[in-house]
Design goal:
The complex is a heterodimer. Chain A has seven helices and four strands. The longest helix of chain A is centred in the middle third of the chain and has 24 residues, at about 55-80. The model of chain A has no long low-confidence stretch (mean pLDDT about 90). Chain A has helices at about 1-20, 25, 30-50, 55-80, 80-85, 100-105, 110-120, and strands spanning about 90-95, 100, 130-135, 140-145. In chain A, a hairpin with a 5-residue loop joins strand 3 and strand 4. Chain A is α+β, with helices and mostly antiparallel strands. Chain B is an alpha+beta fold. In chain B, strands 3-11-10-5-8-7 form a six-stranded mixed beta sheet. In chain B, strand 10 and strand 11 (about 160-170) form a beta hairpin. Mean pLDDT of chain B is about 90; it is low at about 1-5. Classes of the chains: A alpha+beta, B alpha+beta.
Chain lengths: ~150, ~170
């Protein structure tokens, strides 16, 4: 019983923590943030396993985590509200080459991030070549170029 | 450009009302994180200034220093102070609640007791005392094996116990 409770508690705690940290945290990780995620994984594993390193305990924890994940994905299909709460919503940050500064600030995205993605994904050179830039639910930035060149 | 208004050709499930709530949640969350870190530094989740407890009192000959807040399976030290404990026939004797001690794995008792006696309610520790340099404290290195509020008592034989309590986080 305790393995399941630990799995559920850690899953929910991490879900809340990553929602607080914002979608950009996981969407665009620096090498240091990647190391941080590994450390978080290690700390979570210790909390979930306690000092019981039996295979059954590992199976129970894994089954619990996968079970909650599948269960939540099924619930998300039924409830758009729950889906938004867990996965967030996309956010337009550039519209017809114009930066939506207030949104960018709150989403912790700057112009350099957008231009970097524009170069990387679409080979664009300037902001005015971008029709839309969107911070996706995953935290990544997608770029839609203006058609017919800039 | 056909339509300059926002979602013109862009099929997107943007929801600014929800997004604003999400940002508000993130802001509150950041404050909660800060408060938790400060509380942890203060010792509300384990070792730290707010966690240092003692039940020293003139009314009891033996008292303990303990952690008010500790965590399940995380080692702690309970320091029993014996300065005012009467030495009878070269022996200092005190007891701890049996029910309290059942919640811990005992890693070490320093100095090692000469003998340990198990009573119905108490675990009684006997220490041979060197009259020239009597020890003034005994350290119990413990690991909590249960969590919640634990109430203990420490006392001299034949006397009422000196109470203390600890909160053990899961």
């Amino acid at each position: 019983m305790d393995s399941v409770i630990r799995g559920v508690a850690i899953y929910l705690f991490l879900l809340v923590m990553f929602r607080i940290s914002g979608k950009r945290t996981l969407g665009e990780m620096t090498p240091f943030e990647f190391v941080l995620v590994l450390i978080i994984g290690e700390a979570s594993a210790q909390a979930m396993m306690w000092d019981d390193f039996s295979m059954i305990n590992a199976f129970l924890v894994i089954i619990t985590l996968v079970g909650i994940d599948v269960g939540l994905s099924l619930l998300k299909q039924r409830s758009k509200r729950l889906e938004k709460m867990i996965d967030s919503v996309p956010l337009v940050i550039v519209e017809n080459g114009k930066l939506l500064k207030d949104r960018m600030e709150k989403a912790r995205v700057d112009e350099a991030d957008i231009l970097e993605k524009a170069r990387e994904l679409q080979g664009l050179e300037r902001l005015d070549q971008i029709k839309y830039a969107v911070v996706e639910r995953s935290g990544g930035i997608s770029i839609i170029p203006k058609t017919g060149g800039g | 450009m056909a339509n300059k208004n926002k979602p013109a050709g862009l099929e997107i499930q943007e929801d600014m009302e929800f997004q604003e709530k999400e940002w508000a949640f993130e802001r509150v969350g950041r404050w909660v994180i800060l408060l938790v870190i400060l509380a942890a530094l203060a010792g509300l989740f384990g070792w730290g200034p707010a966690s240092q407890g003692s039940n020293a009192s003139g009314a009891y000959p033996v008292w303990v220093e303990y952690q008010r807040f500790a965590r399940f399976k995380a080692p702690i030290t309970l320091t029993a102070h014996l300065v005012q404990l009467p030495v009878v026939e070269g022996e200092a004797v005190f007891w701890l609640d049996n029910e309290y001690m059942k919640n811990f794995r005992i890693y070490d008792i320093h100095p090692t007791p000469d003998s340990v006696e198990l009573g119905e309610q108490h675990v009684i520790y006997h220490f041979k005392i060197d009259p020239h340099s009597p020890p003034d404290e005994v350290l119990f290195h413990l690991q909590p094996e249960s969590f919640g509020l634990l109430r203990g008592r420490i006392g001299a034989v034949g006397e009422e116990g000196n109470p203390f309590s600890q909160w053990i986080y899961p």
